[in-house]
Amino acid sequence: MPVIKAEFHLSNDQIANLNIAAVAVTILVRLIIGPLCDRYGPRKTYTGLLLIGALPVLGVAMAQSYEAFLFFRLCIGAVGASFVITQYHTSVMFAPNVVGTANAAAAGWGNAGGGAAQGLMPLMLTALVMLGVTEAMSWRWALIVPGVVMLVMAALYWKYTQDCPNGNYAEMRAQGMPIEGGKKGGWASFAAASANYRVWLLFITYAACFGVEIFIHNIAAIYYVDHFGLSLKAAGTAAASFGLLALFARALGGWLSDKTAHRGSLNSRATLLFALMIGEGLGLLCFANAGSVTLAIVAMLGFGLFTHMACGATYALVPFIDRKALGGVAGIIGAGGNVGAVAAGFLMKSMGNTQQTLAVLGTLVTVSAVCALAVRFTSEHKASEQALLDGLLQNKNITA
């Protein structure tokens, strides 16, 4: 972004617009993509999104103006809906006693991709410059790489995955085989999810953890450059460390949720999420008030750990909200994360000061933790989930 800012002579207001555009369209696409998974299955949905999403990733490398860059940045936001498909796919593939770990581990690698990009893209740009390519062309050539990788992954996903343990939805429906929860997809899935109050509570909590995470990804590098005077390479490395926490931290949050539920109940998962969000909010306040780059990095890693774990703990709850409308639930809550990022972007745009924005966000995150405590499950709901788990374990033992 510092290189692109110089080339297009971008103002801070325009950079804010770009950051908002990058995540705004994802809200709409995430709402749509979840029910599509219920209807067509995650295999077809994911392959299609990767193929279509690669086009603006490749196209942004050809942008010659702020307006063109903004347009492609907006279109790239649709790729963020891939997260919902991933969470849907792992939710139907893994049993209730380990699904939190599975969801969080898979999502963690997605988040780690953001952190890897923060570190690798500047290095790729630097390598191209060392080979004699101009800086203005280097960032364009570098952006072609992720577009090509997406096309490769589309082919691999189509070839090596299936919708659920019993096969693909289309073939199962053609053979009259039942699909877990009687999923139909479309409006029915979205409407059922929308009527569940737990969905909207988790919508808020996810806005407060994943929304903040996206916001930090967008502003971290330039914050370290402008506020602490770091070089582009050093700022990229510092920003990348935040995203790379997702390699283990998000999975840790899901794993802790599974272990907590095993010792307690479904409500214990929500209580854990509350504690993690309190840690995130307080850590973010420390980051906002750090007086040196060393303290800032330490604080960022501290609150980043809680942020990633909270994201994992949130989606460790998702499979248990409403199995018949899993796509709708995953889509709405996932969209909440992007709503939080967009809101944070507008907040920074209105305040005009990154440090003050971070302080306000820290306060808001701490307050929003109360929503996690309000997520509660009835005795009947708990009994139903326990019966499902017992049945799966019994079938596993019979098969063994």
UniProtKB/TrEMBL annotation:
Q: Name one GO biological process term.
A: nitrate assimilation
List the Gene Ontology MF annotations in alphabetical order: nitrate transmembrane transporter activity
| Localization, UniProt | Membrane
| Topology of the protein relative to the lipid bilayer | Multi-pass membrane protein
Looking up InterPro entries in the UniProt record yields:
MFS, MFS_dom, MFS_trans_sf, NO3_transporter
Note the PROSITE patterns from the entry: MFS
Instruction: Please identify the protein, giving its name as recorded.
Output: Nitrate transporter
